[in-house]
Design a protein that fits this description.
Blueprint: H1 3-21, E1 30-36, E2 48-55, E3 60-68, H2 76-82, E4 86-93, H3 94-103, E5 108-113, H4 117-130, E6 137-139, H5 147-159, E7 163-165, H6 176-181, H7 189-197, H8 215-223, E8 225-227, E9 230-231, E10 233-240, H9 255-276, H10 281-303, H11 323-329, H12 340-359, H13 370-392
Antiparallel strand pairs: 1-2, 1-5, 2-3, 3-4, 4-6, 5-10, 7-8, 8-9
Helix pairs in contact: 4-5, 9-13, 10-11, 12-13
């Protein structure tokens, strides 16, 4: 037998085996999109989306879930912080999937898709191909590549121009930041931290398609979509209800309470310093250290990570990374660099520019920073006068 004939036989064998291994859905198969409500933990605050494939003839009832990651990944927290953590598509039996959401007291809604046998098979093939070890991993991006956007993009790839996402259901288009805040309590540490870490890039209006990075908007969009001229969703139902639990927001534990308390403390100490011609070095050390550390972290998130949403973060206009260096000089009683008064004037200008950026919505800042801006403005003004007099003496 010639070598070319042998190659042909091997190739034919591979093709035949590959065809034989394709699992064909029966006419009784159904495919649906699952939308899950928010949970108590921050990672679950925005809900979840997944795809369910059922075929009673083949005994299949699986959920394809793009939102999984492995806590045992080497250097997990470092990769997560740098935006290099890989997420993956995984499968799970539907009863186990539903039970996990029942334990978390989260509602689950199901939208049954009106697909032909050929369309179901094509979608099923797409999911199985995506679930191969060489395909299942992807670099997660909260806004542009997550469990919900993967469903949107997958449907576009499979159904192409036959699928129409109608936009008339959106009464208003929101910015990415506004969309996030629809799922957050403003006076909460999580809301404050998110606004502190994310930059001006999320203060632009999201397109209709970009709204679908949130599961709720996938649910809403699928209700207003057509495939080959007919509604994409055949039927919608709630398969798991959540029990309403009173989750009161305790003001005494909120950031606004502590920031107002800190504002009162700084104003009191500054008034005492002013009346007695003193300067509390430990307060200044703390203020310049904490704002410097926060500013340094913001710069790292901006320039040293792959997170797309942490770029152009103008919180550094009031959280100066250089304050970390200046904190060293704040411990000195009398001696100070000649440039200290100019630096403090620079800090005051930075606070002013922050307000200008906020007014013109170049970046929308957390309203919780208002007490912090006031206390920094008061303390910087006092220190500017202090070092001016010290230089003149």
């Amino acid at each position: 037998m010639k070598f070319s004939q042998l190659l042909f036989i091997v190739f034919l064998f591979i093709v035949v085996c590959g065809t034989a291994q394709e699992l064909r859905l029966s006419p009784a198969a159904q495919i649906s999109v699952l939308t899950c409500g928010p949970g108590e933990e921050l990672y679950s605050t925005f809900g979840h989306s997944a795809i369910r494939v059922q075929d009673p003839t083949l005994g299949i009832d699986q959920v394809y879930n793009y939102g999984t990651f492995d806590f045992n990944t080497p250097n997990f927290y470092l990769k997560f912080t740098r935006g290099k953590l890989l997420y993956a598509l995984s499968t799970q039996s539907f009863p186990r999937f539903l039970y996990s959401y029942q334990l978390e007291n989260r509602w689950v809604k199901e939208q049954l898709l009106d697909l032909s046998i050929a369309q179901k098979q094509e979608l099923f093939r797409f999911l199985r191909t995506n679930n191969l070890p060489e395909n299942r991993f992807y670099k997660y991006d909260f806004f542009f590549d997550n469990c919900s956007s993967r469903i949107r993009d997958g449907f576009n790839d499979i159904f192409k121009e036959d699928l129409q996402f109608n936009e008339d259901h959106l009464k208003e288009q929101y910015t990415f930041r506004e969309l996030i805040h629809q799922n957050l309590i403003t006076n909460s540490w999580s809301s404050f931290g998110i606004d502190l870490a994310l930059g001006a890039v999320i203060d632009r209006k999201a397109t209709q398609s970009e709204h679908m990075f949130l599961p709720f908007y996938v649910l809403q969009q699928l209700e207003n979509s057509t495939l080959s001229g007919k509604p994409l969703v055949m039927r919608e139902r709630t398969i798991l209800e959540s029990q309403k639990i009173s989750s009161g927001v305790y003001f005494l534990a909120s950031p606004l309470f502590w920031f107002l308390l800190f504002l009162l403390f700084v104003l009191t100490i500054t008034f005492i310093d002013f009346k007695n011609g003193l300067r509390n070095r430990f307060l200044d050390l703390f203020l310049f250290s904490i704002t410097g550390i926060a500013g340094f972290i913001i710069l790292l998130l901006w320039f040293a990570t792959d997170h797309s949403a942490t770029a152009s973060n103008f919180n550094v206009l009031w959280l100066f990374p250089t304050n970390l260096v200046v904190a060293y000089f704040m411990m000195r009683k009398k001696q100070a660099p000649a440039w200290m008064d100019k630096y403090l004037l620079f800090c005051l200008i930075g606070l002013g520019i922050t307000l200008i950026f906020w007014i013109f919505r170049i970046q929308v800042f957390s309203p919780l920073i208002i007490p912090l801006l006031v206390l920094l403005g008061v303390r910087y003004t006092f220190l500017y006068r202090w070092y001016k007099l010290l230089k003149a003496a």
